């Protein structure tokens, strides 16, 4: 396990202390806190009676076990591994009326290895807590986050498909549960992790339409947070885009509608003069973990990465002139997806000279690291701790 990369020597020594043998308890490596959890009696029975269908799709099949922890009276209660089931909410819960909700998405892989592994899970934890802070929600401690995703993965490990590109998709999320209609943050919360065994997700060659009118975020808004309201705000544009025969919208900055930001749910890259160009991060769109991984991986493969403000006018001119030869999007689900066409609202269309050339190489190289079939020079891969497996 190497998710302490970058820690000081003392912290690493503390981390190297092995978890204690008691089922349901382990030592939180950084600060020595004992963290307990409970496993419901019905969990083993639910797992024994579950059979995944041959066709998994993406996010359709839900694993029969999930994790739940409650935040009450200013602190987190011990978490619980339980059967997948509906949750009970007060009809006045803050999450229902004021959208106090944040979530993450990451994968666990089990390709040719005895046990499963994660890919950069602490980046997801950091982003979850960034999102939570923006929505006045409590921080999820590192030990609780790792406990939650590790338990769900370990107990569902037999359900993880083992062909390359397949995985167990994990969805950690937090809800404000206080039942009060006043405009104020909740005082109680649920932190949960559910999972879904998934096929390799292929978006195919995407046809993209430039969104010239709608914005899903605003200056000073929640664009950089991963919260449900942002995605709800993008649904109308997505539906209109798909009705016109395109797959996703290419979104522009909310201030002047000039700079490229992201697609509906993925970050954007263009190959210009042989270099990888991607929009410089701002407060109005999401800092993708796949994006960040490509920014670090690409230079090791000989590609220069340029993070800068990218105007849509400049990109279209670069496609016309031949300077921009390829474009692609990236995200957790599809990893890297090639773009074949970028169209504008006036009906003009711009075809990319190359499709899935550099994109294919980046996708394969990153997937090899995620699945542990290639060397991991960055320390990104984290194996599930053995102490979380059923005894």
Blueprint (SSEs and pairs):
Blueprint: H1 9-15, E1 25-27, E2 34-39, H2 42-48, E3 65-72, E4 75-76, E5 79-83, H3 94-98, E6 101-103, E7 106-109, E8 117-119, H4 121-134, H5 142-155, E9 167-176, E10 189-198, E11 206-210, H6 228-243, E12 248-252, E13 260-263, E14 267-272, E15 275-279, H7 289-297, E16 305-308, H8 312-321, E17 324-331, E18 335-343, E19 349-351, H9 358-370, E20 381-383
Parallel strand pairs: 2-5, 11-12, 11-18, 15-16
Antiparallel strand pairs: 1-2, 3-4, 3-5, 3-10, 6-9, 7-8, 7-9, 8-20, 9-10, 12-13, 14-15, 14-17, 17-18, 18-19
Protein model, in words:
There is one protein chain. The longest helix has 16 residues, at 228-243. Helices cover 24% and strands 27% of the residues. With 391 residues, it is α+β, with helices and mostly antiparallel strands. It is built from nine helices and 20 strands. It starts with 8 loop residues before the first helix and ends in an 8-residue tail after the last strand. Strands 1, 2, 3, 4, 5, 6, 7, 8, 9, 10 and 20 form an eleven-stranded mixed β-sheet that branches.
The major pleated sheet works out as: 11 strands, mixed
Corresponding CATH superfamily of the largest domain: Aminotransferase class 4, branched-chain amino acid transferase, N-terminal domain
**Percent strand:** 25-35%
Number of alpha- plus pi-helical segments:
9
- Which overall shape is indicated by the principal axes computed on the Cα atoms? globular
Element string (H = helix, E = strand)? HEEHEEEHEEEHHEEEHEEEEHEHEEEHE
Mean pLDDT: 91
CATH class type of the largest domain: Alpha Beta
- Uncertain segments: 1-34
**What do we call the CATH topology of the largest domain?**
D-amino Acid Aminotransferase, Chain A, domain 1
- In which range does the helix fraction lie? 10-25%
| Class by alpha and beta content | alpha+beta
Q: What is the second-level CATH architecture of the largest domain?
A: 2-Layer Sandwich
């Amino acid at each position: 396990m190497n998710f302490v990369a970058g820690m000081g020597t003392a912290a690493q020594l503390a981390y190297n202390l092995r978890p204690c043998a008691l089922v349901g308890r382990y030592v939180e490596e950084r600060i020595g806190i004992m963290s307990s959890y409970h496993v419901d009696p019905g969990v083993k029975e639910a797992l024994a009676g579950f059979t995944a269908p041959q066709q998994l799709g993406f996010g359709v099949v839900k694993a029969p076990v999930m994790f739940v922890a409650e935040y009450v009276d200013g602190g987190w209660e011990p978490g619980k591994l339980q059967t997948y089931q509906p949750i009970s909410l007060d009809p006045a819960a803050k999450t229902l009326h004021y959208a106090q909700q944040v979530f993450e998405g990451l994968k666990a892989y089990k390709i040719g290895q005895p046990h499963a592994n994660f890919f950069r899970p602490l980046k997801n934890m950091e982003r979850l807590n960034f999102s939570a802070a923006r929505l006045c929600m409590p921080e999820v401690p590192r030990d609780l986050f790792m406990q939650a995703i590790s338990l769900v993965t370990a107990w569902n490990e037999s359900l993880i498909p083992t062909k390359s590109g397949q995985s167990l998709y994990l969805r950690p999320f937090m809800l404000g549960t206080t039942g009060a209609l006043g405009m104020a943050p909740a005082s109680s919360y649920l932190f949960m992790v559910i999972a879904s065994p998934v096929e390799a997700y292929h978006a195919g060659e995407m046809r993209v339409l430039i969104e010239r009118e709608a914005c899903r975020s605003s200056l000073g808004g929640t664009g950089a947070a991963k919260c449900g309201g942002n995605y709800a705000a993008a649904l109308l544009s997505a539906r209109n885009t798909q009705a016109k025969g395109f797959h996703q919208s290419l979104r522009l900055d909310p201030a002047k509608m000039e700079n490229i930001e992201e697609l509906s749910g993925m970050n954007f890259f263009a190959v210009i003069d042989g270099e990888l160009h991607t929009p410089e991060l701002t407060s109005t769109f999401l800092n993708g973990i796949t994006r960040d991984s490509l920014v670090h991986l690409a230079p090791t493969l000989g590609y220069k990465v340029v993070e800068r403000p990218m105007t849509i006018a400049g990109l279209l001119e670069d496609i016309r002139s031949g300077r921009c030869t390829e474009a692609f999007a990236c995200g957790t689900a599809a990893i890297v997806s090639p773009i074949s066409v970028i169209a504008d609202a006036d009906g003009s269309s711009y075809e990319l000279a190359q499709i899935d050339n550099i994109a294919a190489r980046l996708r394969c190289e990153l997937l090899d690291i995620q699945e542990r079939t290639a060397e991991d020079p960055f320390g990104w891969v984290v194996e599930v701790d053995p102490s979380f497996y059923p005894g």
